Amino acid sequence: QVQLVESGGGLVEPGGSLRLSCAASGFRFIVNSMSWVRQAPGKGLEWISGINAGGGMTRYADSVKGRFTISRDDAKNTLYLQMDTLKEEDTAVYYCRHDATDTRGRGTQVTISS
Fold it and tell me: In degrees to the nearest 10, what's the CA dihedral of 101, 75, 50, 52?
């Protein structure tokens, strides 16, 4: 059973940084591609970044390209999202996603406000 637990969210000012983590269990993390998606207030889910098995290929939505960095530590079964130069429009609940099953965790709230 796929289980994903996100952490690291919080309240930061515009221009600040956060690092999100996603602890994965219940499947062979090392051979699976993973993604981060988010849902802003009153809006639908937005895919923002993905990483393949092995971590050699990463992709980003235009809205976060150049500011966010996805990575993975297969020894720790953990997915990361480094978020820099945060903007108020980045405010959302952030979820990691197991791509093969489209399973998400409960999410972590990120709020960008001065």
Answer: -80
pLDDT tens digit sequence for 78-107: 999 999 999 999 999 999 999 999 999 999
| Cα–Cα distance for residue pair 106/97, rounded to 1 Å | 10
Listed residue (102, 111, 113, 78) closest to 6, CA to CA: 78
Residue 9, both tokens = 């969210």
Distance separating alpha carbons of residues 21 and 14, to the nearest angstrom: 20
Place of tokens 């290929």: 57
- Dig out the tokens for 30 from the structure: 């090392």
Cα 76 to the chain's mean position, in Å?
Answer: 16
- Beta strands 10-12 and 108-112, pairing class: parallel
Give the whole-angstrom CA distance, residue 20 versus residue 9. Answer: 6
